[in-house]
Design goal:
582 residues; 36% strand
Length: 582
């Protein structure tokens, strides 16, 4: 049984994206050479020649491959970090990873066929990865690709024999769809992107020091960091069908992490992040300062906030929280390839054409969309990591389930990819999420949603409900050998009273539940959208995703107490904190 857990989420707040006026040329890392420079042929040309020769030679073997692909993930990163007013990290790095996939047998049944009741084996173990030369020297490329291809081929031959043995001793499979879909070759080379503007280095270092020091306002602050990551990457994909695809990406991420501790030992984290394609996408310096200052103030308030008892009842979820909510309880359960496993819960597999949401809701995944209301979306691309053109997929239309997110691994009733085979470097692609947009066709204002919450409290004879404003992320269990549940991890939760008292900040709570039950309680959505972006971790590694969602009203949620540490506050006070502040 496999559990799928988020690594982390980076949150983009809704609101205007103003320009930071400082620009910074993204200097080329590692000897000033970008993508190997002009000394050697383009990488895609060398890889195309290598895969053609390898495929031709391996086709002569007793068990020949019917398909091979090479993928090189090249990423350069600059990172600056400050902790509580001091610079703590300054780093530059580049990584290049080769991922080789060799498929033997036939598209109907090959070495990637899932082995039933063999939990030690897994789909992604069939690939082969290797560290790749940082330049495009053909001799080095030849040695690395040949060695990796031979290892992948040997795995494929061994895997195919295991598949045949497993099929012979198991009952007939219900899903008789094939194991892979061959598609026509595609040629694509992304146009050169603009240089990243990462501005005057010393200015950024000073700002990170300043922003991280704001958390020192809390005398019990345990950690407070400000991190700036500037990333530029390129993906090169070639296969034995003749595809040759080169895509580039870049992003800037500014994130803030801090935590304090309550008297009862509970560690209380806060988190804020901005992600953009370039620095122009980030808020202004003033707005960033205001938001970090607000975060530091919330840390102090959280220490005094009351603990929450277990609760079932109505709630409002901010657009940010609703995005994570949909990602966890719905998104992972419409990734089609996962439904091929007999160990999967297959929550929605047989519900195509069924009503799964109110008819005022639709859910769309669109990797071709790079911006929403002028805000950058992190889950976009032109081709997926299997060389398939990306497609907009309407998964839910007016409440009715219409489709799944598909890779080139088919399932019953869904025989072709819609461009959602994704992977981190070093992993074999599987069906994954991209840019998720939750649409409401009859939006309510925030005040109307509050009125709906008040009416539901009265109907259920409750004196208060909850408003979940900010979340850290979450995880979900999709297998059938454990409860099919989800857990969303809130950061900011407010108690909303039915008698008009001000909302009250609370702490120590997790949002939990089961997908079908929770989905049936969604009642309405707002008209203002919020965006969250982050890395989603699953079988094929951590991939960037984005969710766009309005605020939603749910007639019943379940909150449970959060586990927490029992250690006392530090015995030694911080030197900069006066006794009266403690």
């Amino acid at each position: 049984m496999k559990h799928f857990v988020k690594s982390f989420f980076c949150v983009i707040r809704g609101g205007s994206m103003r320009h930071i006026t400082v620009f910074f040329v993204f200097f080329l890392l590692f000897y000033g050479v970008l993508w190997g420079g002009d000394r050697f042929p383009p990488l895609e040309k060398t890889l195309a020649g290598e895969i053609k020769k390898a495929f031709s030679e391996l086709k002569k073997k007793e068990i020949p491959p019917y398909y091979i692909s090479y993928r090189v993930d090249d990423e350069k990163k600059v990172l600056f970090s400050a902790e509580l007013g001091s610079l703590s990290q300054e780093d530059e790095e580049q990584s290049r990873i080769l991922t080789v996939m060799v498929r033997t047998g036939s598209p109907e049944k090959d070495n990637f066929h899932l082995l039933r009741e063999d939990f030690s084996s897994y789909y992604t173990s069939q690939g082969e990865t290797a560290r790749f030369p940082l330049d495009n020297n053909p001799a080095a490329v030849h040695l690395v690709t040949r060695a990796a291809a031979e290892k992948a081929y040997r795995k494929a031959v061994d895997g195919l024999s295991k598949v045949k043995a497993n099929v012979d001793i198991k009952v007939e499979e219900k899903d008789r769809s094939g194991d892979y879909t061959l598609i026509p070759p595609h040629k694509y080379h992304a146009p050169d992107s603009e240089p990243l503007s990462v501005g005057q280095v010393e200015w950024w270092k000073e700002r990170l020091r300043f922003w991280s020091a704001l958390f020192l306002e809390d005398p019990f602050c345990m950690e407070g960091s400000a991190d700036l990551s500037v990333v530029k990457g390129e993906k090169t994909f070639v296969d034995s069908s003749g595809s040759c695809i080169v895509q580039s990406y870049q992003y800037v991420r500014l994130s803030f992490h801090a935590s304090t501790k309550a008297d009862d030992g509970m560690v209380l984290p806060v988190f804020l992040s901005f992600v953009g394609e370039n620095f122009r996408d980030l808020p202004s310096e003033e707005e960033i300062t205001n938001q970090v200052s607000r975060l530091a103030g919330i840390m102090i308030e959280l220490r005094e906030a009351p603990l929450v008892d277990p609760y079932t009842g109505p709630a409002l979820l901010s657009g940010e929280a609703a995005g994570v909510f949909f990602h966890e309880i719905f998104g992972h359960r419409v990734e089609g390839q996962r439904m091929k496993k007999v160990t999967d819960g297959q929550t929605f597999k047989d519900k195509i054409g069924a009503q799964v949401l109110p008819d005022t809701f639709s859910v769309v995944y669109d990797p071709l969309l790079s911006r929403f209301q002028n805000n950058y979306l992190w889950g976009g691309y032109r081709f997926d990591d299997e060389g398939t053109p990306a497609e907009k997929v309407i998964v839910v239309e007016e409440g009715v389930l219409k489709n799944f997110l598909m890779s080139r691994t088919p399932i019953a009733g869904h025989g072709s990819s819609n461009g959602h085979g994704r992977a981190r470097g070093g992993y074999i692609p599987v069906a994954r999420q991209s840019n998720m947009i939750i649409q409401t066709h009859e939006p309510l204002s925030h005040d109307e949603l509050r009125e709906a919450l008040a009416a539901e409290l009265k109907r259920q004879q409750l004196s208060f409900g909850y408003h979940i404003e900010a979340v850290q992320g979450g995880f979900t269990l999709t297998g059938r050998y454990s409860p099919n549940t989800f857990n969303v991890i809130p950061l900011l939760v407010y108690r909303v009273y039915d008698d008009g008292r001000p909302d009250e900040l609370v702490r120590g709570v997790d949002l939990i539940g089961t997908p079908l039950s929770m989905f049936s309680r969604i009642r309405a959505g707002g008209g203002e959208y919020e965006i969250f972006s982050g890395f989603c971790g699953a079988e094929s590694g951590a991939v960037p995703v984005t969710a766009v969602s309005p605020e939603i009203f749910v007639s019943q949620i379940e909150l449970q107490k959060k586990g927490h540490a029992q250690s006392k506050l530090p015995l030694l006070p911080r030197p900069d904190v006066r006794k009266e502040k403690r």
